[in-house]
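Predict the 3D structure for this chain.
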Amino acid sequence: METLPELLAVDERLNERMETLPAVIQADTDARVVELWLDGRNALTVEAYAKDLDGFRTQVGKPLRAVTIGDLQTWFANVGGAPASRTRRLASIKSLMSYACRIGYLQFNPAAAIRSPMVVNFLAERILSEEQVVRLIALETDPRDHALIRLLYIAGLRVSEACGLKWGQTSGRKAGGGQITVLGKRSKVRTVVLPASMWRELGRLRRGDMPEEPVFRSRNGGHLDPTQVQRIVKTAAIRAGLPKDVSPHWLRHAHCSHALERGANPALVRDTVGHADLTSTSRYSHARPNDSSSRYLIG
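Done. Predicted structure below.
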């Protein structure tokens, strides 16, 4: 699912591209607008946006063309949850209404007048140290779960990408090691090179030559689902004495942060993990800087 910075960045780029195009009405119902807006997004993103939209519709109780600035202000004032969650829900509705305006369905975008609140970036609190990641992996004894947790970190995968990985998306490399082809957000495909030890560990999970077989099999032989992966990682975190709110995405955060700290080019990190742009990647440098002017002061 898109993060808040990625969602806002994509929406801004779409605005820039659409400014020079004539206003041609592309939809005649709210349902059609939503269908076009969600087209091409992955299943987890569609599920999250649909949930945001359902909550919005339930409270406002109006079609999009009848929604006013006051309706949006009242709705947002009553949205529950943590500040980041509230801001993400607002970003979802702003994105939808902006899109509806761009395709000519709305003549005026009332959401443009609603300011998104400032969200404090607590990313640094969700980045595990290298020692913590090593302990998390080392204490996992189940072969499948060990390989899963390690790959989430080594490849910087999203949960949906790990769950959907098939053997047909893997291949060895002549120089040793292997690679996986990942289908990411907005159907973007990227290739991630794996070190030899990680490649060998994955190979030990393989049971046949069927390319459609999942790399990480559930008990019934199908793909693991995100809820199962969340449970696997949280159980491993508790075992390792780590914070109880550790999630699979923390391993992706750790990948980005540790790679940058060890001198990886930010563009390479961006391409490896599938960030929309360098803005998303650079957040990790700001979250865990290697230096600060405070170190130069007395006291």
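The longest helix spans residues 83-102.
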